[in-house]
Write a structure and sequence with these properties.
Blueprint lengths: L14 E2 L9 H7 L9 H18 L5 E7 L1 H12 L5 E5 L3 H12 L3 E5 L9 H11 L3 E5 L1 E2 L4 E2 L3 H10 L3 E5 L18 E3 L11 E7 L1 H8 L12 H8 L11 H17 L1 H22 L14 E5 L6 H12 L1 E2 L1 E2 L8 E5 L7 H17 L6 H13 L1
Parallel strand pairs: 1-12, 3-4, 3-5, 5-8, 8-9
Antiparallel strand pairs: 2-10, 6-7, 9-10, 11-14, 13-14
């Protein structure tokens, strides 16, 4: 076999405004180039405690069971669903976006019976529909997506949803992958039993260690399971040995990813979680003002607008993939096209974490305007730029 000749790694320097990964803060990149210690080193045990405390702060929770799960957001998602859902449980999942579908598939593989509550893609769940679904199906577990990255919709009325579930003695699992650290999220106050997130969205950290938190009540269900979870790697009963008081080996922690997450969360606490939510609203608000003034339309109505993921309707006569390819080639700028029911209909423009800053927002508005004009769309780029700069100046 021939020896492969591979050059030095020189990735392009992209501006990342897609659905994730977002741009990584330079301090996080620096933390990742510090020396490794063993995953049971006393200094690493301190780091684990610090990461857990910082995660509780970001989630707004006192849950003891708050850990980074090894793997991307789908790993913390599968840890949540695969441990909480037991064979024979009925699981209520939403149909109003791509990630509700993933929830359903994971719950099915965990042995759950799936029932659904619907809303069109681009709309949130209506609490009345959730109430009706509870009365009809009596689910044991209810999953919903707080920030639907596929549609740019923020689920409002979370406490109403969790009240319905708790009135029926059910457990609530919330997908907070695109909300943690970007938009208002209050795990304890809102009565969320289990919340999972990712590192590469609003925390602006590389993917690899993903936040998960469970209430004592949820953890009691997990620890009382008759049958072990189907995944050994994500078995929270076993992971308790490592992240709990015992600190015994289960699997090697992704040390560098834990360093990165620690630094990313330190940035969250320095900024202050509420100030961070506000910054996302302001930066994404300027982006939204720009695209609207240019003549484009947002997909989600104002009340459900998700600042961390802006879904913008593709204008008449424009091919979405030509625009994204042009932005990548001409501007080193990444945004995404639609998924599922919204394929071909929207652009998905992230405004997450370190990417949510004035330079990137202005750059996006001018680059997108140029790309659309090149495609023959009738957009007023100057009006967009002035609206953005006005909003940024406010
Ligand atoms: C990105 C995302 C996920 C999955 O996370 P990965 O890191 O891609 O595994 C799950 N849910 C939502 C809402 C997401 O945006």
């Amino acid at each position: 076999m021939e020896k492969p000749t591979v050059g030095e790694l020189t990735p392009p320097n992209r501006t990342l405004l897609g659905p994730g990964p977002s741009e990584v803060h330079p301090r996080v990149l620096r933390a990742m180039s510090t020396p490794l210690v063993g995953h049971l080193d006393p200094t690493f045990v301190d780091i684990m405690d610090e990461v857990q405390a910082l995660l509780r702060y970001a989630f707004r929770t006192n849950n003891e069971w708050t850990i980074p799960v090894s793997g991307t957001g789908s790993a913390s998602m599968e840890a949540a669903i695969g441990n909480v859902v037991e064979p024979g449980d009925t699981v209520l999942v939403p149909t109003n976006g791509y990630f509700g579908g993933r929830m359903a598939e994971m719950a099915r593989r965990a042995g759950g019976t799936i029932v659904r509550v619907g809303a069109p893609w681009g709309e949130p769940l209506d609490p009345a529909d959730v109430q009706a679904a509870f009365e009809e199906h009596r689910p044991d577990v209810f999953g919903f997506v707080h920030a639907e990255t596929s549609t740019g919709v923020l689920q409002p009325n979370v406490p109403e949803l969790t009240d319905i579930a708790h009135d029926h003695d059910a457990y609530v699992i919330a997908d907070c992958v695109t909300s943690l650290g970007g938009v208002e999220l209050r795990v304890d106050e809102w009565g969320i039993d289990v919340a999972y997130a990712g590192a590469q969205k609003c925390l602006s950290c590389p993917p690899g260690a993903s936040p998960l938190t469970l209430s004592d009540r949820a953890m009691e269900k997990v620890l009382a399971r008759e049958e072990s979870p189907r995944s050994w790697y994500l078995d929270l009963g076993l992971l308790e040995g490592y992240w709990g008081d015992e600190r015994s080996y289960h699997h090697t922690a992704p040390v560098t990813n834990v360093y990165a997450l620690r630094e990313a969360l330190r940035l969250v606490s320095e900024e202050g979680i509420e100030a961070r939510w506000e910054r996302h609203r302001r930066m994404a608000g300027a982006l939204k003002a720009g695209v609207e003034a240019m003549g484009l339309r947002m997909n989600a109505p104002e009340e459900y607008w998700l600042p961390s993921l802006n879904a913008v309707r593709v204008p008449e006569g424009v091919t979405d993939t030509d625009v994204t390819a042009y932005l990548l080639e001409q501007y080193d700028l990444e945004i995404a096209t639609g998924l599922g029911d919204l394929d071909g209909e929207i652009f998905r423009i992230g405004c997450m974490g370190y990417s949510a800053r004035p330079e990137t927002v202005s750059y996006l508005v001018s680059a997108l305007g140029d790309a659309l004009q090149k495609q023959g769309a009738d957009v007023d780029v100057n009006a967009g730029l002035s609206a953005t700069s006005r909003a940024l100046g406010e």
